[in-house]
Amino acid sequence: MDVAGDDERGTTERVLALLGLLQQRQVWTGPELADRLGVTPRTVRRDVERLRTLGYPVHASQGVGGGYQLGPGQDLPPLLLDDEEAIATAVSLLVGAGGAVASAGGAALRALTKLDRVLPTRLRREVRALSGSVESFGAGRTPVDAEALMVLARACRDEVEVGFGYPSGKGVRGRRAEPYRLVASEQRWYLLAYDLDRDDWRSFRVDRMTGVSARTWRFRPRAAPDAARYVQEGVASRVYPHQARFLVRAPAETVRAQVPASAAVVHPRGSTLCEVLSGAASLDFVLMHVLLLGHDFEVLDPPELARRCRALAQRLLSAGASIPPGPEPEEP
């Protein structure tokens, strides 16, 4: 019989129970804790020291109204959650990750992935059932299946292949991919993955995926592009038939505030210049939007767009030739 092992497990369970009591109420006296745990006050003092060693700031005060109190610390030690608290936390994170709260979605998914490491299997069914009964409304990110997000997040973490259905020109096709990162924009969730069918990197919109599942086949991670930048460039330019680059005479921060991240990629070129990469179905459409930013700019690429600028400039000059020159209108 492993008596030492049993004693160690008993001590661990008791210390966790003590931590749970300290999280439930602001102040406990030593005798109260000893009575709840079925031990002596001396054992309580030893267990309090064990918690302090683990990084939990347990304060002790003497006199009337004194006792043991769990205080805030500089580091965040592991939380102790009972079944109901774990379920409530997981459901809240699922809603935050898959719903319309754009600013909290990424943090919620990261926290949920960490919680998933320790969530017992018996609780996952309850989390799934409860999350299916919660909906949200309002502006923000396109809603996605929160459980699909979790499957993809776990697959990224565990480095296993995923399979899913994805629309193409010939209908929905089954896809196989090595998932690398989940990326959240202000509107949608994307998966950056190595597409095994096309033998290349690709970003997939999570809201378009169906039947998401993790496979048992593990893969060795490849050298990957910067996930956020790759997805943003794809959303802003690569998905369109025409792409254009401009040198804009304004700070990158100023232009970023004017253009949604899904519409253009802005790279700084010093403190007063920036490069803007964007795409559209028509080069004239891209040109119009850059013109309306209100900054001086020049076309870097493609060459035909520079020629188009000169042609449009001549047309604009001709359009205003019949009107006598006057004071320049003030910019809005």
From TrEMBL:
Pfam families: HTH_11, WCX, WYL
InterPro entries to which the protein is assigned, alphabetical: CBASS_pafABC_assoc_protein, DeoR_HTH, HTH_11, PafC-like, Tscrpt_reg_HTH_DeoR_CS, WCX_dom, WH-like_DNA-bd_sf, WH_DNA-bd_sf
Top-level division of the source organism's lineage: Bacteria
Keyword annotations of the record: DNA-binding, Transcription, Transcription regulation
Keyword Transcription regulation: yes
HTH deoR-type domain mapped to chain residues: 11-66
A molecular-function term among this protein's GO annotations: DNA-binding transcription factor activity
Protein name as it appears in the record: Putative DNA-binding transcriptional regulator YafY
Organism of derivation: Lipingzhangella halophila
